[in-house]
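Help needed: design a sequence for this.
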């Protein structure tokens, strides 16, 4: 099948099911209460019409492939004015977070990070009130309706 042509041979010839996952990205204020963040999307960039005003951000993430975060933001229609990639599970320091906040402030744009990284930086909220200004991007993955059935067949 033509859809499998772009996949590595070891995947496309594995005999295992290959699913195309639908993803979307939600952007929310990091100072929202956790129960609100879990149930309410302030902006669902991938599902709404493009805005007439440019939305620029400085992005940072400590994930296995930080460039994927940048691409997700761009696919959602956001402009990335700067990006900082850290190693997966990076233990951020207060000095690093302050430098990131200053970088975004120098460009007069918000700082945005992954939900995973937000968990790692929120410990600095008490010592730096600007932490609350960091925007959180939540990645949503939608599985096919028959995903459980297909998994049980493996």
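Sure. Designed sequence:
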């Amino acid at each position: 099948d033509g859809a499998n042509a772009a996949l590595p041979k070891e995947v496309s010839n594995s005999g295992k099911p290959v699913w195309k996952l639908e993803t979307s990205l939600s952007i929310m204020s990091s100072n929202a209460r956790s129960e609100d963040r879990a149930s309410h999307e302030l902006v669902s960039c991938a599902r709404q019409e493009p805005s007439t005003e440019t939305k620029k951000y400085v992005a940072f993430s400590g994930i296995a492939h930080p460039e994927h975060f940048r691409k997700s933001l761009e696919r959602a229609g956001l402009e990335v004015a700067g990006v900082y990639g850290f190693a997966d599970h990076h233990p951020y320091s207060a000095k690093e977070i302050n430098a990131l906040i200053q970088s975004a402030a120098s460009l007069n744009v918000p700082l945005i990070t992954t939900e995973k990284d937000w968990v790692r930086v929120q410990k600095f909220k008490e010592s730096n009130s600007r932490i609350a200004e960091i925007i959180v991007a939540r990645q949503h993955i939608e599985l096919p309706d028959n995903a459980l059935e297909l998994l049980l067949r493996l």
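The longest strand covers residues 22-29.
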